[in-house]
Amino acid sequence: MINSEHKTIIKNGLWDNNPALVQLLGLCPLLAVSNTFINGLALGLATTWVLAGSNGSVSLVRNYIPKEIRIPIFVMMIASFVTNVGLIMNAYTYDLYLTLGIFIPLIVTNCAIIGRAEAFASKNKFVPSLLDGVMQGFGFTAVLCTLGALREMIGQGTLFSGAEQLFGEWASDLTISFYLTDSTFLFAILPPGAFVGLGILIAIKNGIDHKRAEQAKASKASPVQSGEALSHE
User: Residue 118 in contact with residue 129, Cβ under 8 Å?
Assistant: First the structure.
């Protein structure tokens, strides 16, 4: 049963406190890897696995870890999950593992992961901590996939290119071509395009939040104004 606390955690992870759009954490892999949808999805799923595993583990042992050495222990726990996901990718999605390269082991240094372990998992029970890790991961993955899709469509004219690297040979038919070109639009493919794309996504989110805040303010003011009008009559 989802209670109000769980709803808040879900909303924070996906929107209100999104690690990429609000906290602005983990931007190095976000900007470097999100040149295609599949790359973004793969890194996002790997990060989600590490976030969920580390959050849950930290929550279980939080009362047994001395405060003075909690950060090194958190890092070692995160590193164990990163090693786990790296070995799985190396075994089952080797080509994609090579494509993502150094950014798989660099998940250990992702500030979003150590930040959630310190700020949330070390202070809450297992279920909320696990849910927080999953939702923060999904929020990060959503931004990676959206940015990757935009950059891939603009830069290469395709979508879901390289899907077979993640899902198997059958997924090669999933690739969609929007236009054919002899050369790619490098600005979209390279990190400068990622900076611009991320800025646009942040601006869109801020615009939506501002519009919602204005609507909420107007809805609260309307009953007050109606009550004042009736009192004058």
Answer: no
Closest CA to 59 of 9, 4, 1, 2: 9
What does the pLDDT look like over 24-55, one tens digit per residue?
888 888 888 899 999 999 999 999 999 999 99
> Comparing C-alpha atoms, which of 172, 34, 164 is closest to residue 94?
164
Query: Pick from 28, 172, 53: which is nearest to 104 by CA?
Result: 28
Q: Which residues, other chains included, contact 221 with Cβ-Cβ below 8 Å and sequence gap of 6+?
A: none
**Taking the CA atoms of the chain, what radius of gyration do you get in angstroms?**
21
**Distance in angstroms (rounded) separating the CA atoms of residues 9 and 22:** 15
Secondary structure (3-state) at 18: coil
C-alpha to C-alpha distance for 53 and 129, rounded to whole angstroms: 10
| Angle (deg, nearest 10), helices 126-156 and 4-11 | 30
What residues contact residue 177 under an 8 Å CB cut-off, 6+ apart?
157, 158
Predicted pLDDT at 231: 53
Q: What is the mean pLDDT of the chain?
A: 90
pTM of the shown model: 0.91
pLDDT of residue 16: 93
CA distance 97 to 226: 62
What is d(CA 35, CA 190) in angstroms, rounded to the nearest whole number?
7
Q: What are phi and psi of 176, to 5 degrees?
A: -110, 130
pLDDT tens digits, residue range 195-209? Answer: 999 999 999 999 999
pLDDT < 50 stretches in the chain: 230
